[in-house]
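Hey, resending since the last one bounced:
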Amino acid sequence: MIKGMTGFGSAQIATGQIKAVIEVKSLNHRYLDINYHLPVGFISIENKINQMVQKDIERGRVTISLKLACKSAQEIFLNRVLVKKYFHYARALEKEFGLKNNLSLSDLIKLPGVVEIKETFVDAEGLWPSLEKGLRKALASVKLMRKSEGKSLAKDVSEKLKRMVGKVNEIQKRTEVILKEKKQKLSSEEFSSLQKNSDIHEEISRLRHYIEEMKLLLNGEISVGKKIDFIAQEMQRETNTMGSKLLDKIVSSAVIALKSKIEKIREQAQNIE
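The structure tokens again:
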């Protein structure tokens, strides 16, 4: 069964002191386009995520979001070497200018570079085993939603194909009636010319073939959205040709109905993986 391209999945991750939420969103797109919203230092795992997504999704705009509850920790660093230099210059100034050395601890820690606060980030590679499990769970939810959407899309397109068959039958029957009426009114030469110029047997045959081919695609397991769109374009060509060959109100009405159904199928093809 075909799949849609809209889906969402999330999973919570807890390992050690780290808690995280990973989310996967999928929307319509012509190709597979993967985007990331990851914490600092997690660019190294993008390729691994790519490989996992590509196994499950062939088409769509996919957004991977990772939120950490403790994305970084702060550490205080005392630059002892710099402290010694400050004391060295303070003593030198004391001796040279006869100053009183009243450098206190509070003064010292305020000096540039003495105390530094550094952030230590979560190790992405170390967290990957847990992230991988969470990502699989989130992707499974996305796939489930896309399959559910695919069922609805297949039902809708199938109904439109069914109505198209009815309109094709209507055109074929009307063609027979038109030719029968014209045969009684026209000379043999005129009728032969009309019959040749208004022959839509080939167009009807192709249109029926495209309808059956599209039905088969709807039951397939591979990505078929682009194929359905291509077939719908070919359907439009055949329908336009039929309309131009037979200038009749009933045929024109049926052709307009066919074109409407085909256009709606093309619109739905944009939602099919």
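Residues 7-71+122-144 form a domain with the Ribosomal Protein S5; domain 2 fold (CATH 3.30.230).

Sorry for the duplicate.
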